[in-house]
Amino acid sequence: MLYLIIILILLTCITYVTYPFIYQSKHIDPLLYKRNIKIRKRGLISELNNELESGILSNDLYNQLKDDVDEMINSELKNLNKEIKIIDPIEKLIQSKKNEKNN
Amino acid sequence: MTISSLGFTLLILTMNLCLYSILGSLIGIKISSKALLRSAKNASYCNLITLAFSVSCLVYAFVTRDFSIKYVFNHSSLSMNPIYTWVAMYAGNEGSLLYISLVISISSFLTLFFIPSELNEAEPYIISILSGFLLFFVTVMIFLANPFDTFQNIPQDGRGINPLLAHPGMFSHPPLLMAGLATIVAPFSLILGMIFTGKFRNDGLDYIRTTSLIVWSILGIGLLLGSWWAYTILGWGGYWAWDPIENVGLMPWLIMTAFIHSIIVQRRRGMFRAWNVILIFLAFVLAQFGMFINRGGPVVSVHSFAASTLGYIFLGFMLFSALFCLIIFILNSHKIKSDNNVKSFLSRESAFLMNNFFLVAITFVTLWGLIFPLISELFANETVTVGAPYYNSVNGPVLLALLFVMGVGPNLSWRNTSKENLISNLLIPISLLFISFILLLFFSARPIISSLSISVIVLVLSTILIEWIRGSYKLTKTGTSWYISFIKLIINNRKKYGGYIVHISILLVAIGVIGINFYQIKVDKVLSVGEEIKIGNYKIELIEINENEYNDRREKIATFLIKDSENKTINTMTGNNTFYPSFNMASIRAAINSNPIEDLYIIPSDFINESKMKLIVSINPLVWWMWIGGPVFVLGTLISLWPYKNRKG
After folding, report:
1. pLDDT in tens, B422-467
2. A75 interfacial to chain B (CB closer than 8 Å)
3. Domain containing residue A12
4. Number of structural domains, chain A?
5. Most buried of A5, B190, B346, B580, CB within 10 angstroms?
């Protein structure tokens, strides 16, 4: 009985560990990070809205904090764009023209 | 194959899975193999299966009283009440290491299973850190503290469970405390993983906050249950004795408290990034320090049940962790700079900083008190004992300042608070503080510090209530009732107001602390059967003393009749003093009559003969509120943790 238990546990572990080599997982969307940052922004703005609605924040302070959130998130998006190097087709064209000129 | 060899084989399997998981995730990053990374993650999940079965083997051995296993022999006996089987499982060093390993595997599983996509890049590092931590514990068990070690000749009966552990509080206090200390690795691994990717910004902070809150609440409840256990069973007459084992649980909790406040600032304002890294590193190292002290550290404690000769191993691991954290921080400090700085002293950010400062100060005062006897012995060859008076006199004022910040902080706005806002927000709370202070000063004959403490509690409570009343009032304008408006207010701002409910629980604990420290009445007396003693409004008559002899213990039970000042019977209470010859240990259970106003607390400290005994009787005002603080703490944490559904998508 105890042998059977150890064999079953061993088989489960081996199957589970080797499974990813047999079935490859899906490709991760590079825009996922961008979407996550936007979701986070929505969360922060929603918290500010709730605080405004509940009278915790004054209108002035709400606007200031909202601007701060915008600034923080925009700076993160800017950094992210640099990292994942998403260049739109027009920008790509400009880049190649520049390279041609330099050559 | 025997149950012990099955349990041990599963430990070896776990060790191999950990090694595979570490190597798989690190090589997977190097060669960019998603399949290998996924496989390493699955191996980490498998640890949960192997350790759950290994723990089951040990529990089964306890249930069947398999005394061929040394650990079962040392921590159970045929006469042991079967309900304490679970407690016996972690009553000693080897079993508690196995339990901790199971907890780490559960927390690793949950951390990795719920990890958000924001942390995808950091995930391989997180896997290797979690598996590395688990590998340490499993390796120690396999080579140095095997819970499945067996005898050649099987004994007929075991030594029995440590009598101090035979208490309902033991089902939850040690496992929660051990779990709290061990699972600090979860938020630690998340932040370390992000640092390794070179991108510790603001991604995944909600997840880090959630894991930290869970770990922090587990540790907090564990500490509170420990206080309750000390109050009811240890016969100290108190709830907290600044014992080394208590202190090593308190210190990481204090740092985690600072961290969960400070992470809010990073999330909202992009600040305190480096500081948050320092805090989580510190919490992790202090948790390892706790493991070291608990398992054979050089500091003497009255309740270290997992003491062993493995202290040096845990000391080595703690020093390695500290060095590792220091190197990682120095190498990456340029990558973890904040986006903003504190712009005004009168701002919420500044209040959070003050809160952090006080929490860290209390931690270091406690740490100093803990290690000072060692330092003095090492350098001056003189043994010095640092007791409660040191901790109370140094930490007391800092705790008061912390409570004050808790009251003022929520009245400050993010960025900057204008003078008008400051006055309008603080006018009522500060007025209440002064009024209560002056009233207490005139009508209470206690030290000024007690009046000040109660006034600060009034400040914090009024701040919370005013904000709730103001918010609910605003919502009633939409046509809803006060009750619905209040519920809506809490639900809409549950992260913040869950935190406020936790603040209320801290106030409840503080009320109990003030009650027992400043308003306690205490009497020591020798009493014969039939005699009575007067204390406060109570008359306590010793009715009888009974002695019972069992296989494993001698129990002396005293029965008291409690009357009020008008001779009306209130209650009959019993307290006992039990001696366990095989452990050479006595366990005292106080007789406690508890109500929201005060506890009547009788310690049967010594039985002189069959009709005479020595008692310590005290009236402990407001302690009842301290234990109510526990459920309120849990409620606040749950509200704060409750996820927002409508934000996604």
Report:
1. 888 889 999 999 999 999 888 876 788 889 999 999 999 999 999 8
2. yes
3. 2-102
4. 1
5. B190
